[in-house]
Amino acid sequence: MAKTGRGSLRQLATLPHAPEQNKNQTSRNQLPRLMDFPEIIWPSALNTIKNWITVQFIIRPYFDSEFQIKDFVYGAKQALQVVSSKLVGGDLSQLQDLVTPEAIAELKPVVQKLSMTQRKQLEIHESDIYLSFPYQIGIMFDDANDKLQKRWVEITMVFHVMRGLTEMRERGEEIPWNMGTMPEYQDRVFICNYRFKKEFTAGHQSDWTINVANHFRAIDLINESK
Fold first, then answer.
1. pLDDT digits 0-9 by tens, 169-207
2. 59-68, Cβ contacts within 8 angstroms, sequence gap of 24 or more
3. Can you tell me the distance from the alpha carbon of 199 to that of 179, in angstroms, rounded to the nearest whole number?
4. Where is this region: Disordered (predicted)?
5. H or E element: which one contains 214?
6. DSSP secondary structure letter of residue 59
7. What is the Cα–Cα distance from 184 to 214, expressed in whole angstroms?
8. What 3-state DSSP class applies to 123?
9. 8-state DSSP, 58
10. What is the pLDDT of residue 202?
């Protein structure tokens, strides 16, 4: 499966930079990269077309006739909420059924070094997600065994989250469509990249597991690029 590309910082260039007096505080609260994976922010038009073709002409006819991307996205949001809550607690052993051992091994030393303030930033509530989409859907095959072809589906999801969005809605506040570009919301807008993998080998199907989990703020990418 081709490695996904880094989200273009040029698309974020219109975001106002953090005031100079807030830079030190921003630096202390900035999340380090949880995993070595390129940050993805926006959909790719080409990938969107490829994803539709993959679902309609490969996954549904040959792997899972009942597969629906909207159902997958719904489940992915729930998985994001569960995993993020465990990351906040720091006990990654509770993620063994949801996250691959390789991903846990990479996440553990990073999460353990986070301050409490940084850990709290990892917590995501499903109702605070205001945009989500599959960035890339890939199919992988292993023909090493002549008698049995192993096959997997891998889906990279992108979630845009604003912490406190639920409370804003409950108070009846108007939600600005461009809140991600507004200075007063920048510290509360997070982007999560999660990659899900499932085996579809005949007679050996597995559950969906997560092999990539990244959380970051768009404003932090801008500050890094300066």
1. 888 887 777 776 777 888 889 999 999 999 999 888 889
2. 59/137, 59/139, 59/153, 63/151, 63/153, 63/200, 64/200
3. 38
4. 1-29
5. strand 209-216
6. I
7. 23
8. coil
9. I
10. 82
Residue 97 lies in a domain: yes
Q: What is the pLDDT of residues 57-93, one digit of tens each?
A: 999 999 999 999 999 999 999 999 999 999 999 889 8
CATH code, domain carrying 159:
3.10.450
> Which tops the pLDDT comparison, 146 or 190?
190
> Residues 134, 207, 1, 107: what is their CA dihedral angle, to the nearest 10 degrees?
80
Supply φ then ψ for residue 127, to 5 degrees: -70, -10
203: phi then psi, degrees, rounded to nearest 5: 80, 0
* AA identity, residue 224: E
If one counts every other C-beta atom within 10 angstroms of the C-beta of residue 98, the result is 18
Mean pLDDT on 8-24:
46
Encoded tokens for 145: 């065994």
pTM for this prediction: 0.84
State how many domains the chain has. Answer: 1
| Gap between the Cα atoms of 23 and 10, Å rounded | 21
